[in-house]
From TrEMBL:
Source organism of this protein record: Electrophorus voltai
Pfam families tied to this protein: RVT_1
Organism classification: Eukaryota, Metazoa, Chordata, Craniata, Vertebrata
CDD domains found in the cross-reference section: RT_nLTR_like (cd01650)
UniProt name for this protein: Reverse transcriptase domain-containing protein
Origin superkingdom: Eukaryota
Domain Reverse transcriptase, chain residue ranges per copy: 216-326
Signal peptide range in chain numbering: none
TM stretches of this protein: none
InterPro entries referenced in this protein's UniProt entry, alphabetically: DNA/RNA_pol_sf, RT_dom
Amino acid sequence: MDEYWMAFKQAVIETVKETMGCRRGTQKERWIRDPTWSMIDERKIAKCRCEQAKADPDKETTAERYRQLDRAVKRSCKSDKKTWLECKGAKAHEAASKNDNKMLYRIVRELTGAWSNSSAPIKNKDGVFLLTREEQDACWVEHFKETLNQPTPANTYDFGATPPPPDLVVNLDLITIEETKVAIPSTQSQQMLFKKCWQDQSVPSDWRKGVIVKLPKKGNTDDCNNWRGITLLLVPGKVFCSILLRSLQHAVDEILREEQAGFRAGRSCSEQIYTLRNFIEQCIEFIDFKKAFDSVHRGSLWKILRAYSIPQWFVNVFQNLYISSSCCVRTDDGYRLLQHRNQSQARMYPVTNSLFAHSRLRHEKGDDESSDWNPLDKWISSH
């Protein structure tokens, strides 16, 4: 599977390079246009000839040529930057007229260079400031390692004691190109790649690797708990998961309760929020859901999927997505690798969120003897 994926990946990269080419310069030089880059190359060649010239007439000729190209490059760069700034100003004016504050402030930050500093000093568990990059990187690795690697629950529900329910009526045929196009504008090569992943019940190892990016939340930024870690994954793996989720969505929606509105298409939690506010006016209770999604036990989740009549074929594919999965933390100096996640479950596909929220809602109903009691609720109640 990895060889098939690498061949597909290399073919896409080479095709994109031949068709679109590579952008030159750094992020700060993105306003320079291609004609100016060509003039810069000519100036570089002229400078080399000027330095290599030995005779006096040749030196004067090459030096004059270099000075002419240098003046032309400076004029062209000045014109390019002026054009780029005018274009950005027009886009900012248009965003302001449409009350699009997100785009407006993005352009302002892009022009002013006012970006938040993610390398501010942080504290360790003892409250001591860490000033060196090595200490800060080690602290971030330890923080996300503890967040993602939760211990195995002491008590788990015995799913084997309950007779397995019949599988949901879900299409188990090969992934078609129409299903791929629904998830993302696709090509025949991607459809063949997804079809092979489905047949082999395995995915490339690159799809199991993620990069954790730190985003500040409200509160003191010297505390690691006030930062949110977002895992960046490869787009083909996310598209593949979206295809699987769309195949399951219709069948799963039929067994979900009507009260379940979160993590469902075309539904809103507005009424539930209004009801919750009325309850809060009568009593106040704190429930910590801060890192609930990142601490779902993997082994139990596969059994939960079967308890919800998800076909075993889907369970095998989902399970393969997390075998030997790993992440690395992106820092200012590069990337720091985390150990493999052992038992915790990150939100790599949206069905995890839906099952978790539905489980909590069913558990809050309470009665163990009710007719719609599910083994998943008993497992939740033991944690």
